[in-house]
Input
Amino acid sequence: MVGSSQRLRDECQKIATVLGLPLDLGPGDETVFEAAESQGTGDTTWKRFGIESHSCLCLYHAASHSINTGAAIVFT
Output
């Protein structure tokens, strides 16, 4: 299946807005890992949805990198 990195990035931005997820966080940020490990708890929506937030950040940063470099995103 082939898709658009621009559309993926845009979809991730929409999801991040709903979650209140700051896109300047990296998927490897300790705060993000802590939120994923304590799924369902937290003082913000994105922390309560920690696993989803981590996935959104991974996809957002991959799509942004793809747009900036022309690299493909491959899921295996």
Remarks:
- The first helix runs from residue 5 to 19.
